[in-house]
Amino acid sequence: MRYAVRMPPFALRLIPTYAAVVVLLLLARPTALGFAVGTVLVVIGAAIRIWSAGHLVKTERLATTGPYAYLRHPLYLGTLLIVLGFAIIAGGVASAVLLPALLLWFFVYYYPYKNRIESARLERLFGDDFAAYQAAVPALFPSRWPRAASPGSDAACRWSAELFHANHEAATLLGLCVGLCALALRPFLPI
């Protein structure tokens, strides 16, 4: 079965994100070392997001397998690593200004807000199962060993390309590739 890369619709709430991307590109002064280190973080973050999206069935099943056995919010961790990677790649003023600002925004506003909203939704949907999962599995920083029950023989609990595509992660990967290419070409652009 073929899947088209579906881009998410333009949303006004994403204007600050688009503006930050433009500012990042304008301020970027990538170095070879920064590009190498940042790209490793971007790739690790993307791998975590790919792994997570292939286990996530929104509102139908409490995800406790794959990365969800180690932490409750692997998509957020993947995104955080990607953002850190891009900030390191950008180097110079972009890293010195954007990196602390992004970390402050993420840990003070974004993550607490999303965690509160998502936890309330999951508690409504899954009740005691979610409460037990929440008590056993750390939120953002993974445990060394899986802490959630994950029956390995159940085919519904294995990574699925269909879920990966249904969760629109192909568009995320395309965006990451475009971003890496833009930053790789930045030294040659007259801006």
Notes on the structure:
The chain is elongated. It has helices at 15-27, 32-53, 74-90, 92-136, 161-166, 169-185. It contains six helices and no strands. By secondary structure, the protein is mainly α. It starts with 14 loop residues before the first helix and ends in a 6-residue tail after the last helix.
Q: Which features would summarize this protein structure in a list?
A:
single chain, 191 residues, mainly alpha, 0% strand, elongated
Helix fraction bin: 55-70%
The structural domain count equals 1
Gross CATH architecture: Up-down Bundle
Q: Largest sheet, described in full?
A: none
pLDDT < 50 stretches: 1-5
What value does the average pLDDT take?
A: 85
Distance between the termini: 42 Å
Order of helices and strands: HHHHHH
User: In percent terms, what proportion of residues is strand?
Assistant: under 5%
Q: Please count the helical segments.
A: 6
Q: What is the count of β-strands? A: 0
CATH class: Mainly Alpha
- Which fold name is given in CATH as the topology? Four Helix Bundle (Hemerythrin (Met), subunit A)
- Outline, from the CA principal axes? elongated
Rounded Rg:
18 Å
Secondary-structure content class: mainly alpha
